[in-house]
Write a sequence for this structure.
């Protein structure tokens, strides 16, 4: 217990973890295992291991203040993320799997609005699968330059 709390800065309402972190989350070695520091904090405060996720009311992943922690499920975590607008929306060219650009998408939408069929647009050198997904609104539906067709 003493070894754990030595790694915590309690100068603020959030008690920040000052030792090793992984992706912004505090990590603590206990019983030959690396554990998330908020889970250990929960255990030290309540005497039992959390049954599910440990969520933060303060949205500070390095905080281990037991008053800022609560148990929840994966669904609770996702609802909390959406409610607090913390989800990353990587659309269009910002998506790591993107294989085209906005200019090409607008050209395809323009051709679709002119009445060209996807197979005709494919014959002009555009990827058929991309054309179909743009036409159905499955891909690039967030673009506002030209409406979906």
């Amino acid at each position: 217990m003493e070894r754990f709390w030595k790694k915590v800065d309690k100068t603020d309402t959030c008690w920040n973890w000052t030792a090793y972190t992984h992706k912004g989350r505090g990590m603590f070695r206990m019983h030959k295992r690396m554990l998330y520091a908020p889970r250990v904090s929960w255990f030290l405060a309540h005497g039992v291991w959390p049954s599910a996720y440990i969520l933060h009311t303060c949205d500070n992943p390095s905080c281990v203040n037991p008053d800022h922690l609560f148990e929840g499920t994966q669904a609770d975590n996702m609802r909390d993320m959406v409610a607090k607008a913390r989800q990353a929306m990587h659309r269009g060219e910002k998506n790591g799997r993107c294989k085209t650009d906005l200019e090409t998408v607008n050209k395809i939408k323009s051709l679709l609005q002119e009445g060209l069929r996807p197979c005709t647009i494919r014959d002009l050198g555009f990827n058929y699968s991309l054309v179909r997904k743009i036409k159905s609104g499955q891909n690039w539906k967030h673009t506002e330059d030209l409406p979906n067709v």
